[in-house]
């Protein structure tokens, strides 16, 4: 290792709508929700990540929580910069770091505009990066699940995150065709909020909705291994008093149906525009699911029923993208798909 390298610190960041993950020295050193809490009067950051998430929906007039990303892209530039800076400080348990030269690889959705790309690059630079590389999320996901992306072989990756679902066919180190749709985990949560309000006359918050999705969420109204009904507390819209109800996975499957259909439409569209030689490959290799949405019960079976293709859920789907980003960081010279 040369003297120059010794001074260069390298980090790989998956800056997600729901979660931010950082890999440093081959290890996931940060895995926290993408949230920042600010003091309204001083505009100072009070907390970021998990600590800020605990405050979400429970703040008083002096605190407000912000999710800097929306639909996979930076929506609040100032908050994003604070978040990246704060997350990097968490490496080394906040003991402080001196970065003479910080190299960053950050992943971005494939459907991102030039302006949105600029925002990611600028936030990284303001947060201290001297050298920034960008990588498209589906490419990172493919590398992360161990697909040999250089091969002349087509693979379909679907990354279902909080803000976006990225559907891409990858071959020869490039994205051949893709669909980026802004329907993902966050929409599932709002579907659940609306459903509980309409059907049960109860108002619930986003965190409760996410909990329902994780505990009893389902993409199919009938499951072989069904979860038990789940008790939910919220505010009764008629009386204003807290109330408890129970919800079943079948109800949630019905309320998520429309959003999942939109994802299915995107998959069919991507398959339709895939060149025939790659279609033939995908018939063999199937579809790989990554991102937190891949954990929704029955989603793999539902996509299989729709496409008749083999569907694989990636191992540790929430970390596939950051793993791939980390591997790309180590192969900066080799991987042509890294953008500077
Ligand atoms: N067991 C589960 N079942 C269903 N959904 C889940 C589960 N676990 C996590 N999720 C959802 O996955 C989403 C987060 O996934 P992920 O971390 O891949 O998103 P992200 O990378 O932050 O977002 P994006 O890629 O869109 O910017 C959230 O909406 C979360 O609620
Ligand atoms: Mg993601």
* Rough outline: flat
Bound ligands: adenosine-5'-triphosphate, magnesium ion
Secondary-structure-based class equals: alpha+beta
Overall number of structural domains: 3
Protein name: Cell shape-determining protein MreB
Organism: Albibacterium bauzanense
Keywords: ATP-binding, Cell shape, Cytoplasm, Nucleotide-binding
Family: Belongs to the FtsA/MreB family.
Features:
single chain; 340 residues; alpha+beta; Nucleotidyltransferase, domain 5; Actin, Chain A, domain 4; 3 domains; five-stranded mixed β-sheet; 18 strands; 28% strand; binds adenosine-5'-triphosphate; binds magnesium ion
Task: Give a verbal description of the structure.
This protein has 340 residues and is of the alpha+beta class. It has 3 domains: 2-140 and 321-338, 2-Layer Sandwich (Nucleotidyltransferase, domain 5); 154-182 and 261-314, 2-Layer Sandwich (Nucleotidyltransferase, domain 5); 185-255, ATPase, substrate binding domain, subdomain 4 (Actin, Chain A, domain 4), CATH 3.90.640. The chain contains 11 helices and 18 strands. The strands form 5 sheets. It has a 5-stranded mixed sheet with strand order 3-2-1-9-10, sandwiched between helices. Strands 13-12-11-17-18 form a 5-stranded mixed sheet, sandwiched between helices. It has a 3-stranded antiparallel sheet with strand order 5-4-6. A hairpin with a 2-residue loop joins strand 12 and strand 13. Helix 3 packs across helix 4. The longest helix is centred in the last third of the chain and has 24 residues, at 249-272. The chain binds adenosine-5'-triphosphate and magnesium ion. Adenosine-5'-triphosphate binds at residues 16-19, 72, 161-164, 184-186, 210, 213-214, 217, 291-293, 295-296, 318.
């Amino acid at each position: 290792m040369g003297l120059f390298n010794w001074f260069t610190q390298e980090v790989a960041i998956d800056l997600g709508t729901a979660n931010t993950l950082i890999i440093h020295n081959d290890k996931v050193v940060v895995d926290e929700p993408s949230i920042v809490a600010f003091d309204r009067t001083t505009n100072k950051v009070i907390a970021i990540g998990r600590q800020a998430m605990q405050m979400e929906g429970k703040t008083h007039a002096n605190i407000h929580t912000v999710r800097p990303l929306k639909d996979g892209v930076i929506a609040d530039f100032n908050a994003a910069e604070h978040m990246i800076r704060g997350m990097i400080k968490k490496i080394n348990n906040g003991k402080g770091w001196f970065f003479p030269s910080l190299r960053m690889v950050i992943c971005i959705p494939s459907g991102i505009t030039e302006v949105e790309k600029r925002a990611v690059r600028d936030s990284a630079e303001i947060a201290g990066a001297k050298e920034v590389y960008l990588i498209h999320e589906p490419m990172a996901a493919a590398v992360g699940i161990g697909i040999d992306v250089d091969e002349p072989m087509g693979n379909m990756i679907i990354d279902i995150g909080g803000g976006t679902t990225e559907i891409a066919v990858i071959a020869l180190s490039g994205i051949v065709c893709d669909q980026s749709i802004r329907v993902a985990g966050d929409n599932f949560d709002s579907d659940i909020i609306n459903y509980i309000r309409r059907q049960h006359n109860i108002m619930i918050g986003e965190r409760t909705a996410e909990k329902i999705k994780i505990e009893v969420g389902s993409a199919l109204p009938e499951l072989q291994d069904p979860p038990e009904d789940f008790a939910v507390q919220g505010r009764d819209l008629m009386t204003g008093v807290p109330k408890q109800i129970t919800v079943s996975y079948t109800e949630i499957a019905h309320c998520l149906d429309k959003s999942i259909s939109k994802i299915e439409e995107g998959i069919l569209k991507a398959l339709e525009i895939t060149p025939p030689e790659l279609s033939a490959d995908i018939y063999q290799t199937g579809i790989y699911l990554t991102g937190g949405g891949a954990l929704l019960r029955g989603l793999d079976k539902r996509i299989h029923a729709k496409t008749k293709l083999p569907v694989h859920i990636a191992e540790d789907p929430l970390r596939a993208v950051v793993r791939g980003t980390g591997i790309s960081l180590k192969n900066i010279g080799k991987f042509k798909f890294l953008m500077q």
